[in-house]
Amino acid sequence: MARPKEFDRDEALRRAIPVFWEKGFAGTSTEDLVRAMGIGRQSLYDTFGDKRRLFLEALRAYNADGVAAIMKRLRAGPTALAAIERVLVELAEARDGARSLGCMGVNAVCELARDDDEVRALTATSAALLEAVLKDAIDEGRSRGDIGRGIDSRAAARFLAATLSGMKVQAKAGASAEALRDVAAFAVQSLRPR
Amino acid sequence: MARPKEFDRDEALRRAIPVFWEKGFAGTSTEDLVRAMGIGRQSLYDTFGDKRRLFLEALRAYNADGVAAIMKRLRAGPTALAAIERVLVELAEARDGARSLGCMGVNAVCELARDDDEVRALTATSAALLEAVLKDAIDEGRSRGDIGRGIDSRAAARFLAATLSGMKVQAKAGASAEALRDVAAFAVQSLRPR
Hints:
Radius of gyration of chain A: 19 Å
Order of helices and strands of chain A: HHHHHHHHH
Oligomer: homodimer
CATH class of the domain at 56-189 in chain A: Mainly Alpha
CATH architecture of the domain at 56-189 in chain A: Orthogonal Bundle
Distance between the termini of chain A: 73 Å
CATH topology of the domain at 56-189 in chain A: Tetracycline Repressor, domain 2
CATH superfamily of the domain at 56-189 in chain A: Tetracycline Repressor, domain 2
Shape of chain A: elongated
Protein backbone atom coordinates (compact mmCIF):
# COMPACT_ATOMS: atom_id res chain seq x y z
CA MET A 1 0.00 0.00 0.00
CA ALA A 2 1.30 3.45 -0.95
CA ARG A 3 2.25 5.52 2.04
CA PRO A 4 1.54 9.26 1.79
CA LYS A 5 4.67 11.38 1.57
CA GLU A 6 5.77 12.57 5.00
CA PHE A 7 5.76 16.31 5.60
CA ASP A 8 6.14 18.71 8.46
CA ARG A 9 2.62 19.63 9.55
CA ASP A 10 3.61 22.91 11.14
CA GLU A 11 5.76 23.91 8.17
CA ALA A 12 2.84 23.21 5.82
CA LEU A 13 0.53 25.31 8.00
CA ARG A 14 3.04 28.19 8.00
CA ARG A 15 3.09 28.11 4.22
CA ALA A 16 -0.69 28.47 4.07
CA ILE A 17 -0.64 31.73 6.07
CA PRO A 18 0.71 34.11 3.36
CA VAL A 19 -1.80 32.73 0.86
CA PHE A 20 -4.82 33.41 3.06
CA TRP A 21 -3.26 36.70 4.20
CA GLU A 22 -2.94 37.97 0.65
CA LYS A 23 -6.06 36.50 -0.95
CA GLY A 24 -8.51 36.29 1.94
CA PHE A 25 -10.64 33.24 2.66
CA ALA A 26 -13.04 33.43 -0.29
CA GLY A 27 -10.26 34.39 -2.70
CA THR A 28 -8.06 31.39 -1.88
CA SER A 29 -8.56 28.19 -3.86
CA THR A 30 -7.54 24.70 -2.80
CA GLU A 31 -5.20 24.78 -5.77
CA ASP A 32 -3.46 27.89 -4.33
CA LEU A 33 -3.01 26.08 -1.02
CA VAL A 34 -1.74 22.82 -2.47
CA ARG A 35 0.84 24.75 -4.50
CA ALA A 36 2.04 26.91 -1.60
CA MET A 37 2.06 24.16 0.99
CA GLY A 38 3.85 21.65 -1.23
CA ILE A 39 1.52 18.81 -0.26
CA GLY A 40 -1.11 16.84 -2.13
CA ARG A 41 -4.79 17.68 -2.05
CA GLN A 42 -5.62 14.51 -0.16
CA SER A 43 -2.91 15.17 2.44
CA LEU A 44 -4.37 18.62 2.92
CA TYR A 45 -7.82 17.23 3.63
CA ASP A 46 -6.53 14.34 5.77
CA THR A 47 -4.31 16.60 7.85
CA PHE A 48 -6.21 19.86 8.14
CA GLY A 49 -9.83 19.02 7.28
CA ASP A 50 -11.44 21.42 4.82
CA LYS A 51 -10.35 24.90 3.65
CA ARG A 52 -12.25 26.58 6.46
CA ARG A 53 -10.58 24.45 9.19
CA LEU A 54 -7.18 25.20 7.66
CA PHE A 55 -8.01 28.92 7.52
CA LEU A 56 -9.04 28.98 11.19
CA GLU A 57 -5.84 27.18 12.17
CA ALA A 58 -3.73 29.57 10.06
CA LEU A 59 -5.49 32.59 11.57
CA ARG A 60 -4.97 31.26 15.09
CA ALA A 61 -1.24 30.79 14.40
CA TYR A 62 -0.96 34.23 12.78
CA ASN A 63 -2.68 35.94 15.71
CA ALA A 64 -0.61 34.06 18.28
CA ASP A 65 2.62 35.05 16.48
CA GLY A 66 1.50 38.68 16.37
CA VAL A 67 0.75 38.89 20.08
CA ALA A 68 3.98 37.03 20.91
CA ALA A 69 6.02 39.49 18.83
CA ILE A 70 4.42 42.46 20.60
CA MET A 71 4.95 40.82 23.99
CA LYS A 72 8.64 40.32 23.18
CA ARG A 73 9.08 43.96 22.15
CA LEU A 74 7.26 45.21 25.24
CA ARG A 75 9.64 43.26 27.43
CA ALA A 76 12.71 44.62 25.66
CA GLY A 77 12.39 47.99 27.42
CA PRO A 78 14.16 50.25 28.22
CA THR A 79 10.91 51.65 29.62
CA ALA A 80 7.32 50.55 29.07
CA LEU A 81 6.50 53.75 27.19
CA ALA A 82 9.60 53.46 24.96
CA ALA A 83 8.66 49.86 24.18
CA ILE A 84 5.05 50.80 23.33
CA GLU A 85 6.35 53.61 21.14
CA ARG A 86 8.58 51.12 19.33
CA VAL A 87 5.68 48.76 18.63
CA LEU A 88 3.69 51.61 17.09
CA VAL A 89 6.56 53.18 15.19
CA GLU A 90 7.65 49.83 13.75
CA LEU A 91 4.13 49.44 12.39
CA ALA A 92 4.43 52.89 10.79
CA GLU A 93 7.90 52.18 9.36
CA ALA A 94 6.81 48.80 7.99
CA ARG A 95 4.63 50.83 5.64
CA ASP A 96 7.64 51.88 3.57
CA GLY A 97 8.43 49.67 0.64
CA ALA A 98 6.01 47.19 -0.82
CA ARG A 99 2.29 47.65 -0.82
CA SER A 100 0.85 46.73 2.50
CA LEU A 101 -0.83 43.36 2.87
CA GLY A 102 -2.49 44.79 5.93
CA CYS A 103 -3.05 42.48 8.86
CA MET A 104 -4.43 38.99 8.29
CA GLY A 105 -6.37 39.29 11.56
CA VAL A 106 -8.03 42.57 10.55
CA ASN A 107 -8.69 41.23 7.06
CA ALA A 108 -10.37 38.15 8.54
CA VAL A 109 -12.56 40.28 10.80
CA CYS A 110 -13.66 42.44 7.88
CA GLU A 111 -14.31 39.49 5.59
CA LEU A 112 -15.88 37.01 7.98
CA ALA A 113 -16.57 38.19 11.53
CA ARG A 114 -20.21 39.08 11.06
CA ASP A 115 -21.34 35.59 10.10
CA ASP A 116 -18.61 33.34 11.45
CA ASP A 117 -18.79 32.63 15.19
CA GLU A 118 -15.45 30.82 15.18
CA VAL A 119 -13.62 33.74 13.58
CA ARG A 120 -15.17 36.03 16.16
CA ALA A 121 -14.32 33.72 19.09
CA LEU A 122 -10.76 33.23 17.91
CA THR A 123 -10.34 37.00 17.40
CA ALA A 124 -11.80 37.71 20.85
CA THR A 125 -9.28 35.36 22.46
CA SER A 126 -6.40 37.04 20.72
CA ALA A 127 -7.75 40.55 21.43
CA ALA A 128 -8.11 39.73 25.14
CA LEU A 129 -4.53 38.47 25.24
CA LEU A 130 -3.23 41.57 23.46
CA GLU A 131 -5.21 43.78 25.84
CA ALA A 132 -3.75 41.97 28.87
CA VAL A 133 -0.20 42.27 27.53
CA LEU A 134 -0.64 45.99 26.83
CA LYS A 135 -2.29 46.54 30.23
CA ASP A 136 0.65 44.89 32.00
CA ALA A 137 3.10 47.15 30.17
CA ILE A 138 1.02 50.23 31.00
CA ASP A 139 0.79 49.22 34.67
CA GLU A 140 4.54 48.81 34.77
CA GLY A 141 5.02 52.22 33.13
CA ARG A 142 2.63 53.80 35.63
CA SER A 143 4.49 52.32 38.58
CA ARG A 144 7.83 53.56 37.19
CA GLY A 145 6.47 56.94 36.23
CA ASP A 146 7.08 57.00 32.46
CA ILE A 147 3.31 56.62 31.95
CA GLY A 148 0.86 58.91 33.73
CA ARG A 149 -0.24 57.49 37.08
CA GLY A 150 -3.76 58.84 36.61
CA ILE A 151 -4.30 56.75 33.49
CA ASP A 152 -6.85 53.91 33.52
CA SER A 153 -4.62 51.09 32.27
CA ARG A 154 -7.43 48.92 30.93
CA ALA A 155 -8.96 51.77 28.95
CA ALA A 156 -5.48 52.73 27.71
CA ALA A 157 -4.80 49.12 26.61
CA ARG A 158 -8.09 49.01 24.69
CA PHE A 159 -7.25 52.35 23.16
CA LEU A 160 -3.79 51.18 22.04
CA ALA A 161 -5.29 48.03 20.54
CA ALA A 162 -7.74 50.22 18.57
CA THR A 163 -4.86 52.43 17.47
CA LEU A 164 -2.93 49.39 16.20
CA SER A 165 -5.97 48.15 14.24
CA GLY A 166 -6.62 51.62 12.85
CA MET A 167 -3.00 52.05 11.75
CA LYS A 168 -3.09 48.67 10.01
CA VAL A 169 -6.18 49.69 8.03
CA GLN A 170 -4.63 53.05 7.16
CA ALA A 171 -1.39 51.36 6.07
CA LYS A 172 -3.29 49.02 3.78
CA ALA A 173 -5.29 51.97 2.44
CA GLY A 174 -1.97 53.53 1.37
CA ALA A 175 -1.30 56.05 4.17
CA SER A 176 2.23 57.47 4.15
CA ALA A 177 4.77 56.44 6.78
CA GLU A 178 4.76 60.10 7.88
CA ALA A 179 1.01 60.04 8.55
CA LEU A 180 1.35 56.77 10.46
CA ARG A 181 4.23 58.20 12.51
CA ASP A 182 1.94 61.11 13.43
CA VAL A 183 -0.64 58.66 14.72
CA ALA A 184 1.98 56.72 16.69
CA ALA A 185 3.46 59.88 18.22
CA PHE A 186 0.06 61.20 19.23
CA ALA A 187 -0.96 57.92 20.85
CA VAL A 188 2.33 57.74 22.78
CA GLN A 189 1.99 61.37 23.86
CA SER A 190 -1.42 60.60 25.32
CA LEU A 191 0.16 58.11 27.76
CA ARG A 192 2.79 60.47 29.18
CA PRO A 193 2.43 61.91 32.67
CA ARG A 194 0.61 65.25 32.61
CA MET B 1 -39.71 49.04 -29.71
CA ALA B 2 -39.87 48.11 -26.04
CA ARG B 3 -38.66 50.90 -23.81
CA PRO B 4 -36.69 49.89 -20.70
CA LYS B 5 -38.59 50.52 -17.48
CA GLU B 6 -37.71 53.89 -16.00
CA PHE B 7 -36.05 53.90 -12.61
CA ASP B 8 -34.34 56.34 -10.32
CA ARG B 9 -30.61 55.92 -10.89
CA ASP B 10 -29.61 57.28 -7.48
CA GLU B 11 -32.23 55.19 -5.69
CA ALA B 12 -30.94 52.05 -7.45
CA LEU B 13 -27.36 52.92 -6.48
CA ARG B 14 -28.41 53.41 -2.84
CA ARG B 15 -29.97 49.96 -2.84
CA ALA B 16 -26.72 48.39 -4.01
CA ILE B 17 -24.77 49.78 -1.03
CA PRO B 18 -26.10 47.44 1.72
CA VAL B 19 -25.49 44.41 -0.50
CA PHE B 20 -21.81 45.24 -1.10
CA TRP B 21 -21.47 46.37 2.51
CA GLU B 22 -22.67 43.04 3.85
CA LYS B 23 -21.22 40.64 1.30
CA GLY B 24 -18.11 42.43 0.07
CA PHE B 25 -17.15 42.75 -3.57
CA ALA B 26 -16.24 39.13 -4.33
CA GLY B 27 -19.16 37.78 -2.30
CA THR B 28 -21.80 39.79 -4.18
CA SER B 29 -23.35 38.26 -7.29
CA THR B 30 -25.07 40.13 -10.10
CA GLU B 31 -28.20 38.23 -9.04
CA ASP B 32 -27.93 39.74 -5.52
CA LEU B 33 -27.67 43.21 -7.06
CA VAL B 34 -30.52 42.80 -9.52
CA ARG B 35 -32.78 41.63 -6.70
CA ALA B 36 -31.85 44.40 -4.26
CA MET B 37 -31.85 47.20 -6.81
CA GLY B 38 -35.15 46.19 -8.38
CA ILE B 39 -33.87 46.63 -11.91
CA GLY B 40 -33.13 44.22 -14.74
CA ARG B 41 -29.69 42.83 -15.45
CA GLN B 42 -29.44 44.73 -18.73
CA SER B 43 -30.43 48.01 -17.07
CA LEU B 44 -27.73 47.41 -14.49
CA TYR B 45 -25.06 47.00 -17.17
CA ASP B 46 -26.38 49.86 -19.32
CA THR B 47 -26.57 52.26 -16.39
CA PHE B 48 -23.66 51.34 -14.16
CA GLY B 49 -21.27 49.35 -16.35
CA ASP B 50 -19.99 46.15 -14.77
CA LYS B 51 -20.09 44.98 -11.13
CA ARG B 52 -16.76 46.63 -10.38
CA ARG B 53 -17.87 50.05 -11.70
CA LEU B 54 -21.05 49.78 -9.64
CA PHE B 55 -19.04 48.80 -6.56
CA LEU B 56 -16.70 51.80 -6.96
CA GLU B 57 -19.67 54.12 -7.35
CA ALA B 58 -21.40 52.62 -4.30
CA LEU B 59 -18.20 52.92 -2.25
CA ARG B 60 -17.75 56.54 -3.31
CA ALA B 61 -21.33 57.35 -2.25
CA TYR B 62 -20.94 55.46 1.05
CA ASN B 63 -17.70 57.28 1.90
CA ALA B 64 -19.13 60.68 0.96
CA ASP B 65 -22.18 60.06 3.16
CA GLY B 66 -19.94 59.02 6.05
CA VAL B 67 -17.78 62.12 5.88
CA ALA B 68 -20.85 64.35 5.44
CA ALA B 69 -22.48 62.82 8.56
CA ILE B 70 -19.33 63.43 10.61
CA MET B 71 -19.06 66.98 9.27
CA LYS B 72 -22.66 67.65 10.28
CA ARG B 73 -22.10 66.36 13.82
CA LEU B 74 -18.88 68.33 14.20
CA ARG B 75 -20.75 71.52 13.32
CA ALA B 76 -23.53 70.82 15.81
CA GLY B 77 -21.32 71.80 18.76
CA PRO B 78 -21.67 72.86 21.53
CA THR B 79 -17.86 72.76 21.50
CA ALA B 80 -15.46 71.09 19.08
CA LEU B 81 -14.34 68.60 21.72
CA ALA B 82 -17.92 67.73 22.70
CA ALA B 83 -18.77 67.20 19.03
CA ILE B 84 -15.72 64.96 18.48
CA GLU B 85 -16.66 63.02 21.59
CA ARG B 86 -20.16 62.52 20.22
CA VAL B 87 -18.86 61.18 16.91
CA LEU B 88 -16.74 58.60 18.76
CA VAL B 89 -19.34 57.69 21.37
CA GLU B 90 -22.04 57.25 18.74
CA LEU B 91 -19.78 54.76 17.02
CA ALA B 92 -19.40 52.90 20.32
CA GLU B 93 -23.14 52.97 21.05
CA ALA B 94 -24.01 51.81 17.54
CA ARG B 95 -22.36 48.56 18.57
CA ASP B 96 -25.33 47.60 20.75
CA GLY B 97 -27.98 45.54 19.04
CA ALA B 98 -27.44 43.64 15.84
CA ARG B 99 -24.12 42.20 14.82
CA SER B 100 -21.94 44.87 13.37
CA LEU B 101 -21.60 45.08 9.62
CA GLY B 102 -18.47 47.06 10.23
CA CYS B 103 -17.69 49.88 7.84
CA MET B 104 -18.05 49.37 4.10
CA GLY B 105 -15.01 51.61 3.57
CA VAL B 106 -12.80 49.59 5.93
CA ASN B 107 -14.12 46.34 4.48
CA ALA B 108 -13.26 47.53 0.96
CA VAL B 109 -9.73 48.49 2.02
CA CYS B 110 -9.17 45.08 3.61
CA GLU B 111 -10.61 43.16 0.66
CA LEU B 112 -9.25 45.16 -2.27
CA ALA B 113 -6.86 48.01 -1.49
CA ARG B 114 -3.65 46.12 -2.12
CA ASP B 115 -4.36 45.30 -5.75
CA ASP B 116 -6.96 47.87 -6.76
CA ASP B 117 -5.59 51.34 -7.54
CA GLU B 118 -9.07 52.83 -7.88
CA VAL B 119 -10.16 51.62 -4.46
CA ARG B 120 -6.98 53.08 -2.98
CA ALA B 121 -7.40 56.41 -4.82
CA LEU B 122 -11.05 56.70 -3.83
CA THR B 123 -10.20 55.86 -0.20
CA ALA B 124 -7.35 58.39 -0.18
CA THR B 125 -9.70 61.14 -1.36
CA SER B 126 -12.20 60.34 1.35
CA ALA B 127 -9.48 59.99 4.03
CA ALA B 128 -8.00 63.39 3.08
CA LEU B 129 -11.44 64.97 3.34
CA LEU B 130 -12.10 63.37 6.73
CA GLU B 131 -8.68 64.51 7.94
CA ALA B 132 -9.38 68.09 6.81
CA VAL B 133 -12.78 68.11 8.51
CA LEU B 134 -11.32 66.78 11.77
CA LYS B 135 -8.39 69.21 11.58
CA ASP B 136 -10.79 72.17 11.20
CA ALA B 137 -12.73 71.04 14.27
CA ILE B 138 -9.52 70.60 16.25
CA ASP B 139 -8.25 74.04 15.20
CA GLU B 140 -11.52 75.55 16.30
CA GLY B 141 -11.31 73.74 19.65
CA ARG B 142 -7.73 74.94 20.11
CA SER B 143 -8.68 78.55 19.47
CA ARG B 144 -11.58 78.34 21.91
CA GLY B 145 -9.57 76.43 24.49
CA ASP B 146 -11.56 73.18 24.85
CA ILE B 147 -8.73 71.39 23.02
CA GLY B 148 -5.12 71.80 24.15
CA ARG B 149 -3.39 74.67 22.36
CA GLY B 150 -0.12 72.76 22.21
CA ILE B 151 -1.67 69.98 20.12
CA ASP B 152 -0.56 69.49 16.50
CA SER B 153 -3.95 69.58 14.81
CA ARG B 154 -2.91 67.63 11.71
CA ALA B 155 -1.36 64.83 13.77
CA ALA B 156 -4.42 64.82 16.04
CA ALA B 157 -6.74 64.59 13.01
CA ARG B 158 -4.78 61.64 11.62
CA PHE B 159 -4.87 60.05 15.06
CA LEU B 160 -8.66 60.48 15.35
CA ALA B 161 -9.14 58.98 11.89
CA ALA B 162 -7.05 55.96 12.96
CA THR B 163 -9.10 55.69 16.15
CA LEU B 164 -12.34 55.69 14.14
CA SER B 165 -11.02 52.94 11.81
CA GLY B 166 -9.75 50.91 14.76
CA MET B 167 -13.07 51.18 16.60
CA LYS B 168 -14.92 50.03 13.49
CA VAL B 169 -12.73 46.94 13.23
CA GLN B 170 -13.14 46.22 16.95
CA ALA B 171 -16.92 46.66 16.68
CA LYS B 172 -17.09 44.19 13.81
CA ALA B 173 -14.87 41.78 15.75
CA GLY B 174 -17.50 41.80 18.50
CA ALA B 175 -16.04 44.26 21.04
CA SER B 176 -18.49 45.33 23.75
CA ALA B 177 -19.97 48.83 23.78
CA GLU B 178 -18.19 49.30 27.11
CA ALA B 179 -14.78 48.55 25.57
CA LEU B 180 -15.51 50.91 22.67
CA ARG B 181 -16.60 53.64 25.09
CA ASP B 182 -13.24 53.22 26.86
CA VAL B 183 -11.45 53.81 23.56
CA ALA B 184 -13.60 56.85 22.79
CA ALA B 185 -13.09 58.34 26.26
CA PHE B 186 -9.33 57.84 26.11
CA ALA B 187 -9.04 59.43 22.68
CA VAL B 188 -11.11 62.43 23.79
CA GLN B 189 -9.08 62.78 26.96
CA SER B 190 -5.90 62.98 24.91
CA LEU B 191 -7.18 66.16 23.20
CA ARG B 192 -7.97 68.09 26.38
CA PRO B 193 -5.77 70.96 27.52
CA ARG B 194 -3.05 69.76 29.86
